[in-house]
Amino acid sequence: MKEWKERLASWFATAGRMNRAAFVKRFFGVNLACMAAVLVIGSRVIEETGSVFASNLVSGVLAALAAVFLYSPMVRRLHDIGRDARLAQAYLCFGIPQGFLLGKVAALPPGSLGLYAFEAALAAVTLLFIVLVFHAGEPRRNAYGAVPGRAAAAQQTGRKKGRRLKKAGTV
Description:
The chain is mainly α. The chain contains seven helices and no strands. It has helices spanning about 1-10, 20-50, 50-80, 85-105, 115-135, 150-155, 160-170. The radius of gyration is 21 Å and the shape is globular.
């Protein structure tokens, strides 16, 4: 039970760094789960209630949950490229209400300022995710921690830098 709690807590940890591969897995996993839930639950809500509004509400809640679940990996990935959490916080400002706004935005007339603002925010979020997926992390330890993967590999083998130096007789 304790291991399960630690794994759950690690999903929301914002300390340290996350490499591209781990970020991509988490990003697509959360998004695919959210889309599947929207399709299954949203269609079920429409069948049961006949209300498109209720279905849109369910979609908004699931999109907000996806934004919350993506916050910590975004922070850790930003740490990997040497940036602080401000961009991830800005993402939350758009990511949480985004699902609730989709129905309202769809009803806006073409060329309206609100539609342009929503599209600009969506483009900025998309650009942020593209940067996080394709930008290489810093190759050395930075202010946010060691290079992801190297520290874990050292812990699994039980080797640490000091031990190797002692064995070599340099310490």
